[in-house]
Amino acid sequence: MSQSLPITVADAHEASVAREDAARPDVDDAALIPLLTAFYATIEEDALLQPYFAPLDMAAHLPRIADFWSTLLFHSGRYQGNAFRPHADMPGLTAEHFGRWLATLERVVDARHSGPAAERMKALGHRVAYSMQLRLGIPPVLPFRSSGD
Q: Domains in the chain, start-ordered, CATH in brackets?
């Protein structure tokens, strides 16, 4: 007769997380528009961040943002431009804004995706936010986090 090993609460939780991760696909190029649509829909509901995005026609701007992320994540080369420039004209940005943007990005990515590209997207989000804060003269909300790229 075989003897089964006791299953701990931690084991059960780990198995549950693994099943949830397996149910969520990794980020790929085709997922960027739906993911970014969900992200900016969440931003529209955030009283701190919404004023910075309200003037934008997000439907028109989203393909350009997707090209930016595609270039960062998948080296597609589709984005040509200066992502920093529009942010230089946003008065009153603080570390709190960047912290909220990062938390929202991580929450939306985690709710929809799991895998190496999803983790890389979150890490790159940290790198972008860190760099922008430095260029804007804002002490970064979080220390630099390498994306591994």
A: 26-136 (1.10.490.10)
Exposure pattern of 84-117 as b/e (b: 16+ CB <10 Å)? eeebeeeeebeeebbbbbbebbbebbeebbbeeb
Tell me the helix, strand and coil percentages in the chain, rounded to 5. Answer: 65, 0, 35
CA distances to 118, 121, 124, 139 from 147, rounded to whole Å, are 11, 8, 6, 20
User: Distance between CA 59 and CA 21 in Å, rounded?
Assistant: 30
* H/E stretch holding 20: helix 9-23
Q: Cα 99 vs. chain centroid, distance in angstroms?
A: 12
Mean pLDDT of the chain: 87
pLDDT digits (tens, 9 = 90+) for 3-31: 555 565 555 445 444 555 678 999 999 99
Nearest partner of 131 among 80, 74, 72, 91, judged by Cα: 72
